[in-house]
């Protein structure tokens, strides 16, 4: 049963029981209404308490029903709320732990509400590109006041029950229980105290008013416009709450429903829902079931205290896991530690970290020059120079010193993990943990599964990824793994576009308008153009068939590595990061075109965006086809969390679905006919071609 019915003397208690968070799925909705019928038909029952079992009152809609017909099958949530309102006996919501979305809307349909302190109260629909759709925008302003309600609806953020209870004049909670433990008893007593109260109070009958109505909503609209950028839902939250103050209740409900339904069909909403599901899917590995035993990770060692080693260490310190960091020289160790300290001190200065927390974290960090001091670590992460010889020496030493069962991880970004694993006699314990720079900030963690990596190692590091608040995505072994293998194709397109007639600033502007945080040339200047140069030199030897524009090499030959050398694709003023278009670079590009005999043409922003994004899509499709990524949505997670792909587009693969795979394939065929481009690359990946031909999508 997904909701239990029990009578305690003269009070009936309906307890939602649909783990993990009592999602309001069809069966639960049916069970609640049946309980209500039963209670109203039983002359011995005088009042009804509705509550939740386990870890929540209710977390709202049941995500298992997302997008299915069951989600709206009657009794839908609106019908359940109506049944609660129309109950001839008083209904009391007893709220603890979590009341979110539909769960809060359900509580607002009850005649009374009693809450335990510490409960998280929220209407988070905006985070999925929606507004609350079962009366939340109409009822919450009536119980909290317009401003606090709108703040909650627009942000989607949870607020603690005890804070809401302190709002002057609030009618959200009729009573606060002393503690979560006493809530059940206090709810029964409260229900008895209102058993004879008539008429029964309804939130819908309360007024929703703001003393400066129009001026306030104007102000709210301006605020939201700045915040919401590419998303329509936040502004619609303002419209809906305003309607609560201006329309009759039932008209407001119709208005809310209309907005909700319209938003449901926007690409932005589809993208956010896609990413919500994608994040959950990414944590699953088909042949590694959830109940796979995990190794305990209580102590971590990091080899190399450079750019990455320091940032990686911070992740574990932040999670309260002790870290020993090993270097070859004292100076390097000192430098590494100083950087970690500086990073934390900056956070303390900004008020983001308390001094005592900072000290606690630093106390967990131990520097060393000796492998003897790390041999008992449960996990060691190597972040030394990107050279196979250095990795070999380190992994042979680790193999000889680390305790049995320790996980040996490499942060390599380009080297073959299986080769690294083969330096040890325990390749089953070797895994790639590819962090992104700055490693203490970036969400993405590519978990590289070697040919021999053990299943319990995979299960352990995926769980650990969650613990250190990363989005972990599994990648097979391939050059560049998922993210960098794709970005190489994107960079190649950016280069061809310059050869054909675009300027760096035109390319950057076009893709930034599409929504990327930074275009490829500004990005290159930030990361260092010499990195790509080194990769291209290696490619020239390994893959002479891979065509490149030579402009980026020419730029590097001029020593223009980017911000760190004060000049790159753009000019920079000392101490500033503003990218200033460079006459010198422009002349260099023009000169280069002449030498190739290219007559420059005007290139549209559309073509720029399509060539850049569809290059990601085609390589992404190959990556899925080869089994390097388990699913297309994993690629979207990589691009959203690691590469600044615009969230409202949902990732490259989701964007391709939105455009329509048929159209994507047509565009690729067109690009393949361009003599300055790489016809072979633009052959649609077989998976993509097949999906397009069958009228299907990646998702
Ligand atoms: P880095 O040059 O800043 O740091 C490397 C550190 O390793 C230096 O402090 C060096 O003294 C130390 N080291 C060298 N040999 C050692 C040894 N045998 N034992 C102990 N320590 C040793 O390099 P970075 O950027 O931190 O890169 C480290 C690894 O992370 C490389 O494999 C790189 O490909 C990878 N990576 C780098 C990213 C980046 O954006 N910098 C991003 C993702 C991965």
Automatic annotation (TrEMBL):
Pfam families: 3HCDH, 3HCDH_N, ECH_1
Biological or metabolic pathway of the protein: Lipid metabolism; fatty acid beta-oxidation
Domain of life: Bacteria
Major localization listed first in the record, in broad terms: other
UniProt keyword list: Fatty acid metabolism, Isomerase, Lipid degradation, Lipid metabolism, Lyase, Multifunctional enzyme, NAD, Oxidoreductase, Peroxisome
CDD domains on file: crotonase-like
Catalytic activity: a (3S)-3-hydroxyacyl-CoA + NAD(+) = a 3-oxoacyl-CoA + NADH + H(+)
Subcellular location: Peroxisome
GO biological process: fatty acid beta-oxidation
MF-aspect GO terms: (3S)-3-hydroxyacyl-CoA dehydrogenase (NAD+) activity; enoyl-CoA hydratase activity; isomerase activity; NAD+ binding
Domain 3-hydroxyacyl-CoA dehydrogenase C-terminal: from-to ranges: 480-572, 608-696
All copies of domain 3-hydroxyacyl-CoA dehydrogenase NAD binding, residue ranges: 300-475
Gene3D superfamilies, per the entry: 1.10.1040.50, 2-enoyl-CoA Hydratase, Chain A, domain 1, NAD(P)-binding Rossmann-like Domain
Name of the protein: 3-hydroxyacyl-CoA dehydrogenase
Organism: Ramlibacter agri
Lineage, highest ranks first: Bacteria, Pseudomonadati, Pseudomonadota, Betaproteobacteria, Burkholderiales
